[in-house]
């Protein structure tokens, strides 16, 4: 269980990812778990994250904020020698966060990050990045981020499950998403995947323009309903259609039997993101 005393250098890790990506092959995930202790909240960084994502300034951390604190450890795991896939090209397809109670700006955190559950997918293979955030030895925040590595259909891949009819909710807001939001979120999150920064590298991966980060979209949606989130909650999202930048998108949030449903859709009605709060 290697311990990391400071946040890894993401610039160095991305350079490593570019250099080693073409040679990566394998069928197993490394069983390494990275641990970082004594994490103090940088109030200036938190304030900038709040501004970029639309949260108000509070003593409680946004439910998505621990994701950016642990992102460097996630990237380090996915650039270690035993990781089987190139980092560039992985697709973030889903994210689930469970919060036992709100984290406070005064809390001192410990974070643990590991990889799990490499499994077939009709479009390739997928796996989870699991992050646990502790305060005084108690896990109070847990995240499962699911990534897809596209490739040849595995022989043992199960057929894709049929989705229920996707009916758009009545929009509660129309958002104009600026073309620089990918660069702004990258600056505060450290996620500088080139598909989010400029059109030219995005086109190399099949996108007409740069696309928004999925976790910015999730954070922006939760910022819109932040006052309605319970202290203890689970927030699940599925990332669907990439949000090309700049964009105009319809946001909707409505009470459900167990909490809230929310979504972000293109003007055509196709979903960028579908989420639930329980």
UniProtKB/TrEMBL annotation:
Q: Name one Pfam family in it.
A: MaoC_dehydratas
InterPro entries per the UniProt record, alphabetical: HotDog_dom_sf, MaoC-like_dom
Q: What domain of life does the UniProt record list for this protein's source?
A: Bacteria
* Domain (MaoC-like): residue spans on this chain: 183-251
Query: Which family is it part of?
Result: Belongs to the enoyl-CoA hydratase/isomerase family.
State what protein this is by name: MaoC dehydratase-like protein
Taxonomic source organism: Saccharopolyspora antimicrobica
